Amino acid sequence: MEKFYNRKIVINKEQNLQRLDQALAKLSDLTRSQIKILINKGNIIKDGKAFKDASYKVKHNEDFILQLKISEDIKFQAENIPLDIIYEDTEIMVVNKVSGMVTHPAPGNNYGTLVNALLNYNKKNLSDINEKNRPGIIHRLDKETSGLLVIAKNNTSHLNLSKQFKEHTISRKYRAIVWGVPKNQTIEGYIERHKINRKKMSLNQNRKGKFSKTKIKLIQSFKIASLIECKLETGRTHQIRVHMTSINSSIVGDKTYGKNKINQFAKDPKTYNKFLILQNFERQALHAYHLGFIHPKTGKYIEFNKDLPNDINNLLKLIAKY
């Protein structure tokens, strides 16, 4: 028998007069499609009754109850998905995750993930001390971010590497194309879940959330955009994306952060062609190109680098041309 738990959502001013499915998606960690499924199944409750009008215009301070299924352990399937393996030994693997691939299964993403590919490649040699849907996974990259990830092949290596991540001793560098021309600088602050849009994170200086620190270095300027290097001193959810948005240099292609601020870069006719090219880039132009750490068995420092993928390289060539 299926078991459910209730989650109360209160409509705030920002969502006033929005569609029900849109508002609830903004105020939860569910997608709009998942909300529609709940509505159709009668799992959205208002005033004690199932509410099935997805197009209903919500009002400030209205509350709705989401009846959410308590998920049972799921055995995720191995899938024959190609892996770009940079390095492998008896303890670890280093892989280059492509853009568009989710790191591990989650609601709405049970297939086509890095974990599904790892299960097919090496099911019996992955750590299992993490959550059951994350064998081998120590850290993650956002779906649209490409780049290097280290995978643990046993629990001893997993614990060792997890400690290095926790102590911020692992070297991680990213390359990104961002709007504007940021200065060389260090960005610091505390990252917490956004109070209104629960799918986003926000930066504050009030010591709310987790401390975060990123060092920014300008590599090349293209007038309305720049290629930069980001060195992580900490590793928080959406850290680089939140930090770059905080200085009005959001990452090109990022559909979540800073999207409403890019029109300022369309004002100069001399760079308008660049603007159109950048605006139409289909994913966030962020790549984890460098990863360095102490090998969990040998105790020696090792590091890996992976050049920018073709789509970001092609974008650089286009904006340099125009």
Notes on the structure:
This protein has helices spanning 20-26, 32-40, 114-122, 155-166, 239-246, 272-279, 310-321; strands at residues 4-10, 44-46, 49-50, 63-69, 85-88, 92-97, 146-152, 171-179, 185-193, 201-204, 210-221, 225-232, 286-294, 301-305. The chain has 322 residues and is an alpha+beta fold. It has 3 domains: 4-69, RNA-binding S4 domain (Structural Genomics Hypothetical 15.5 Kd Protein In mrcA-pckA Intergenic Region, Chain A, Roll), CATH 3.10.290.10; 73-167, Pseudouridine synthase (2-Layer Sandwich), CATH 3.30.2350.10; 174-287 and 315-321, Pseudouridine synthase. Strands 5, 6, 7, 8, 9, 10, 11, 12, 13 and 14 form a 10-stranded mixed β-sheet that branches. It has a 4-stranded antiparallel β-sheet with strand order 1-4-2-3. α1 packs across α2 (32-40). The longest helix is centred in the middle third of the chain and has 12 residues, at 155-166. The N and C termini lie far apart (61 Å). 36% of the residues are buried. The mean pLDDT is 92.
Could you name the CATH homologous superfamily of the largest domain? Pseudouridine synthase
For the record, the count of structural domains works out to 3
Oligomer: single chain
Class computed from helices, strands and strand pairing: alpha+beta
The largest sheet, given as strand count, sense and whether it forms a barrel, is: 10 strands, mixed
Mean pLDDT: 92
CATH uppermost class of the largest domain: Alpha Beta
Return the CATH architecture of the largest domain: 2-Layer Sandwich
Radius of gyration over C-alpha positions, nearest whole angstrom? 21 Å
How many helices? The count is 7
CATH topology title of the largest domain: Pseudouridine synthase
